[in-house]
Each structure stands twice: as C-alpha cells, then as structure tokens.
Design brief:
The complex is a heterodimer. By secondary structure, chain A is an alpha/beta fold. Chain A contains 24 helices and 18 strands. Chain A is globular, with a radius of gyration of 27 Å. Classes of the chains: A alpha/beta, B alpha+beta. The interface between A and B is large, with 55 and 43 residues.
Chain lengths: 589, 161
C-alpha cells in the first residue's frame, strides 16, 4: 500500500506557508523515490496550527501534524515510512496515544462534513462521500412539496444571521405564481471576524451547489446566482471549477437526471460593499446597480431579481440541505435546541487558543465553546469579553458566559448570533475602542440611503472618538443611547437597524470603562493613545539609553547610566520606549 | 464637469473592446464589465468610463454611480501590486494598526497618498480577509500573509518586484 500525504491548502493554510510545504513534499518524495500520493484538501478548522499535513497508509492509522514547515516535512515522511513516526506536533492521531483531539470530540460536523477531508476540486472525492445522492433522491423520488416539508420539519433557520426558518422561505417562493424564478446564494460574507462561508466554499463547494440545485428544484427555479465577495479569490476559483464539473456530470444544465428540471448557475463577484449582504441590496448589485436596499414588502419571494420571485439563502444554510435530505429531518432536529435545531459553525478568533472553525450543536453554553472546544485563553491575561455577530452584534462579559448559543438566548443579551463570528478579547482590549472600531466600520459601509444610518452613525462615531480622546462628557452617554434608538427605528435595512448594537452592549456591560474615560481621563486597558502616559520608573531605569535611541521624536533625555526622563509635551505616545525597555522601567498608564 | 465629452484614443482600446463585447447586452453585466475593464489598466479613468458608456448605451451617471459605490473600483492609477491590510475585528485586537503604520513607513505612504512614487505598491485597508486565526493579516495581490509583526513586513515586501 502506498503512502497518502494530505496537505491543507485553504487560504488560512496558504497564509501560514502550506504552499511551500506542499512543494517540499513533492521534492522530497521525488528525490527519495518514495511511493506516495500527495493530495490537496482545504481547511479542517484548526487554523491555529496551520500548515497541517495528514499522513497515512491505512486511513485507520493516520497522523495529522500541525505547524509543519518545509524543513520538518521530510523527517515526518521518513519517520512514518520507517514505522517510527515522530511524536512532536501531532495534532490528531488514531495510533499515537494521548493525541485524541478534544477540539473534535465536542463537535458535530454536518456543514463541515467534508472540509479538510476531501479534495475540494475533485468531484469524484465529493461523490465518494455521498455527493449528489441527495439531489438524485430529491429529483427522482420526492415531490417538490415533500422536499419543502422535509426542510420545514428539520426546523433549520437561516444561518446568515436573522434566523428565519428556511423551509418557510422556500414555501413562499414555491407559492409564488411565476414561470421564471431565481435562487440566490448569499456568499457576501462581510462581517469582520467571520470566515465560515469562505471555508465551506473553499473546502466543499459542491455541497453548497447541491443544496442550491435541490432548492431550485423545490421552489421551481431554473436559474441561480452565487454572489461571492471578491476578497475570496480561492473560493471563487473553487466554485468555478465545481460548477464546470457538475455541469459536465449533468447535475447542472438541462434535463437533470433525465427529468424536465433544468438549472443554470452563475457566479457573481462582489465589488466590495458590506451592505450587499442585505438581500435587497444584494439583488440590486446582481442587477448591476449600486447595492442599496429597498423597502420590503414586496419580499424577494414575490418580487426579487428583475422583478421575479427569488429565494435567497446563505452558504451555511445551503451546505446543510443535502445532509438533511439524505439523513432525514428528524435526525437533524436531534441536534440543537427545540427552537434552534441543528448545528452552527462558529469562527473563533482573537485571544483564544484554538482559533479556527468549529461546528457544535446549538444550545451549547458559551463557556463550553470558549474553554473546552476553543481551548481557553491564548494569552496570560484574563478573559474580558466575547464579541458575537460582528458589526451587528455585541460584546458579552464574563458574567454572561453561561448563555447558550441559540438564536433566542443570544438575542436576549442584546447581541445577535449573526453569521457566527466569535472574537475573544482579554483585558488588553478597550471596549470604548471596540465600539469605536465597529461604528467606524458601519459608518463607512452605510450606503447613505437612510438619514439616521448615514448621519446618526457618523455623530455616534464622533462622540466615541471624543470619549477615547478624553474629551467626553457624561451627557454623551445619554446622547449615544438616544441616537441608537433613533437609528434602530429610522433605518430601512439590517445594517442600520443593528449598527448601534456594539455601542449599546458595551454601554450595558462595560459602562464603568466609559466612565473611566470620561471622568478619570484614563483608559484602563491602555489602548486609547490620547489617554496614555509613558513615564520612566526611577527605581528600575539603569540608564542603558535604548529607549532614547528608539524614540522617533527624541523626547527622552538622560546621560548613560543615569535615570532617563520623558518630555511629556513632546511625547507622541507611540509606545516604542515601552516595547524597547528590557528592564520594565517604562510605566504605561 | 467631471468628464471630458469626446473620448481620447485609448492605449488599450482593443483589450477594452474585447471586455465590453464579452458582456454587452447581457443582463446585470455592468459590474463584471467594469471589473474586467479595470483589470486592464488597474483603474477606471474618465476616458474609459465615457467610452464604456458610448459603446454600451449605459448612462455615464449610472456607470460613475456604480464605480464610486463599490470600494474595489478605483478612479486613480494604482501600483503593480495591491497590498490589502486587513482591519477586521480579530486583526484590530491583534494590533493591525501597527502593521499598517509599518507598511506606510517603509513605503513612505500615508492615508491620503496610498501609491508609491515608483508605481510598485498601492496600500488599502480592507474590512476582513477571513483569515482571522492568523491575525494580523495582509494580502498582496492574491497571496495572504499571516501572523505578522511589524518586523516581518520588510522581508515580505522585498519579495515583490
């Protein structure tokens, strides 16, 4: 039996140097005439130890190594061939003791079932893993109503953020009386801190395409669009290849499985506008217009793309469909909670040890997600908050870590599930700064149609800048809250309606920090530059002069072996002295 | 008036004609058409937008409206390599600002001046590149570089000609 070596080559792997590792493997096996098949796969979700390489002869005896480099990979292959695999950097293995992976035990992978396992650009790999069987079952054995009922019974809710029941959405589009209908996949994943859609599109594009074809058949659409953001070039490339392969095999095109069902699928590349994640704006963008939202009703199911009934689902939602059809609604609803059935993919990032993608049953407490599946904090500093749902979401403090992850529980806190981004922060993050960061984002991305969103977010940002510059007043907090309520009421689409959430949640859970900025003129986390002060600790300074040499504005003076002094008027608070001092002699506060 | 009326003879007329012909008459083709046209010269000049309007019959105001709405369209010449500095949440908490400052320092650029004098690089902040686990991240052309520190920037920039 020959050796199989699999390399994870998704964007995250490539950014960590997996391309070089792949080349080094090819070179090594050629030079040493090793009988091995080198396969490409995408992201298995453990981005924190990329590049990842899996090696096996028999799948039951495999080892996955993390943090592989082009220098270390030769040794990994040789030691494995000799039957004495090295035990350093083993991430998962079913032969080496003590390396069972805790990250995986708590997960249930439905959406990510093939990610990091199959070669995403090989339709044969997908077919070997039950690919397109759900489509065959749907088209050959099920009525359109039966498919919609199955999706309804599964209870799956839209994974794009709002959580609208998918089956119901399909029913509306099915009910619309029109010969021409469209189905659209929303792959405009714009939330900073979320990357599940990218990973699914890169790692298992056929699962999304299969879900779309089933949806098209069920609602009666013959044409579809995948609207993918242009910042994901690899996802677009894999989708193009997958569409070509599916067309060649007859899963796309005319007379699918010999029936009267025809379906044509196109890719539309986004052009960089966050608001296009909103469905009416997204459709305007596909039509070649400025991506500005429009008033609903009419809903897309009645009048969508070019005025025709249109059904729009998110990437993750669609990746669930084939699994539900094959395994049944009841099996899906076994996972999760009564009102939020199934699993959810989360993107863990920030100061968390196991950053990457995880898929867990809905209803798991945040604490378990962060500390068990996510491995806890990466830094020595304590947990401060977790940001859920990106710019539409909010920051939750440690007291709320018992909150379970399902749509309704998270909504109650003032945050939202959103697309599933979770950015974990330690005490080095300032909550005023985080609120400012998100307001800056929404203010930039506001399309400008609604006055409160356009001007209100700008005014809120100005107030936050003032507070972080130490020029805020206590009344500002009331103004922020008042403006928030008006923006929520006075905006047409989700972008504006949720834009104040990061401010409202930080005001609710981290109000003391705002007060410290306003009353004490200090930034407790040491982030807001204007409120920082760098001083030399006289008892620690040995006069090595390093700080004076590093200072870009030469505001540090002092003789060699004498205590140094920082001229506060000239200091630009860049922190270069603080970073440079080896004797902990610079006080930051 | 922002645009000149009659269009000048353009350097890449043949290529631009090919791009226009590929999309002309197709529904919803304006954005991919402009993306294709932009890829020829790296930006959309006034002349090119006027020319696209003339050839397709799409009103110039509509073309300009679309070109200014989406951040990927550029109205100024850009460098041979595009450096996208991720300003997503995960990168922000991992001090993406320090990375941006270092790139600007090394290339002698600022917020208002985003393209190097020799036309080699254009630097732009982007919302999120989706590689949050490797924060802070930048993308140069189509390659992503992760787990950066200000010290690692120089070495990466040197790889580009």
């Amino acid at each position: 039996m020959s050796l199989v070596i699999k390399v994870g080559l998704a964007s995250c792997g490539l950014a960590a140097g997996a391309g070089e590792v792949y080349d080094a493997i090819l070179k090594h096996i050629k030079k040493n005439k090793i009988d091995a098949e080198v396969k490409k796969t995408a992201c298995i979700g453990m981005c924190f130890v990329e590049p990842l390489v899996e090696i096996y002869e028999d799948k039951k005896k495999s080892i996955t190594y993390g943090d592989v480099t082009s220098e270390s990979v030769g040794n990994i292959i040789d030691s494995f061939s000799k039957g004495k695999p090295i035990e350093e950097n083993v991430i998962i293995s079913n032969i080496l003791k003590g390396s069972e992976n805790k990250t995986f035990n708590k997960q249930k992978r439905i959406v990510l079932r093939n990610c990091g396992i199959i070669d995403p650009v090989s339709i044969d790999d997908y077919l070997e893993n039950d690919g397109y069987k759900a489509l065959e079952k749907s088209v050959k054995d099920m009525s359109r109503e039966a498919i919609i009922d199955e999706i309804k019974n599964s209870g799956i809710r839209g994974r794009g953020g709002a959580g609208f029941p998918t089956g119901l959405k399909w029913q509306f589009a099915f009910n619309a009386d029109n010969k021409k209908k469209y189905i659209v996949c929303n792959a405009d994943e714009g939330d900073p801190g979320a990357f599940m859609d990218r990973s699914v599109l890169e790692g298992d594009p056929h699962s999304v395409i299969e879900g779309m074809i089933i949806g098209a058949y069920a609602i009666g659409a013959d044409e579809g669009y995948i609207y993918c953001r242009a910042e994901y070039p690899l996802a677009i490339k894999h989708l193009e290849i997958a569409i070509e392969q599916a067309t060649e095999k007859g899963y796309l095109g005319d007379k699918i499985f010999g029936t009267d069902f025809n379906f044509e699928l196109h890719i539309k590349e986004g052009a960089g506008a966050f608001v296009c994640g909103e469905e009416t704006a997204l459709m305007a963008s596909i039509e070649g217009k400025r991506g500005m939202p429009s008033i609903r009703p009419p809903f897309p199911a009645q009048s969508g793309l070019w005025g025709k009934p249109t059904n729009i689902n998110n990437v993750e939602t669609l990746a669930n469909i084939a699994w539900i059809i094959l395994n049944g609604a009841n099996n899906y609803a076994k996972y999760g909670t009564e009102k939020s059935p199934g699993t959810k993919v989360f993107a863990l990032a920030g100061k968390i040890r196991n950053s990457g993608l995880i898929e867990v049953p809905m209803g798991m407490p945040l604490k378990e997600v962060i500390y068990n599946v996510g491995g806890g904090m990466k830094t020595e500093k304590p947990f401060k908050g977790v940001q859920l749902g990106g710019p539409s979401g909010g920051c939750l403090p440690a007291e709320l870590l018992d909150t379970t992850v399902d749509y309704d529980s998270i909504n109650k806190t003032g945050a939202i599930m959103g697309s599933g981004g979770m950015v974990v922060m330690d005490t080095s993050s300032c909550m005023v700064d985080i609120a400012k960061f998100f307001l800056n984002f929404t203010q930039n991305e506001s399309c400008g149609k609604c006055t409160f969103c356009r001007v209100g977010t700008k005014r809120m940002l100005e107030i936050l800048i003032r507070i972080s510059d130490g020029e805020g007043e206590m009344e500002d907090l009331d103004t922020l809250e008042e403006l928030s309520q008006n923006i929520i009421k006075g905006s047409l689409c989700g972008l504006g309606q949720t834009a104040p959430n990061p401010v409202l949640t930080t005001l609710k859970y981290f109000r003391d920090e705002y007060i410290a900025h306003i009353k004490n003129k200090t930034c407790p986390a040491g982030v807001c530059t204007a409120l920082l002060k760098y001083e030399v600790k006289e008892d620690k300074c040995i006069g090595c002069t390093v700080c004076a040499m590093k200072c870009p504005v030469s505001c540090i003076s002092g003789e060699r072996k004498q205590v140094h002094f920082i001229d506060q008027d000239a200091c630009i608070k860049c922190g270069a002295c603080y970073d440079a001092c080896k004797f902990d002699a610079i006080k930051k506060g | 008036m922002i645009f000149g009326g009659v269009c000048k003879i353009m350097k890449y007329k043949t290529e631009i004609d090919i791009a226009i012909n590929k999309f002309i008459g197709k529904k919803g083709a304006l954005i991919p058409l402009l993306q294709n046209v932009q890829s020829i010269e790296g930006y959309l000049s006034k002349e090119v937008m006027s020319y696209v309007s003339e050839k397709t019959g799409i009103k110039l105001a509509h073309i300009y409206g679309v070109a200014t709405f989406y951040t990927m369209f550029r109205l100024k010449p850009q460098g041979r390599h595009i450096i996208r500095v991720c300003k997503g949440t995960a990168c922000h908490v991992s001090d993406a600002n320090a990375i941006m400052n270092e790139i600007n320092n090394q290339l002698d650029l600022s917020e208002d001046n985003d393209t190097t004098k020799d036309g080699k690089f254009t630097v732009m902040p982007v919302a999120c590149l989706g590689c949050c686990s490797l924060a802070p991240v930048i993308m140069i052309d189509d390659s992503t570089h992760g787990k950066l520190t200000p010290d690692s920037i120089g070495k990466i920039l040197k790889r580009y000609e």
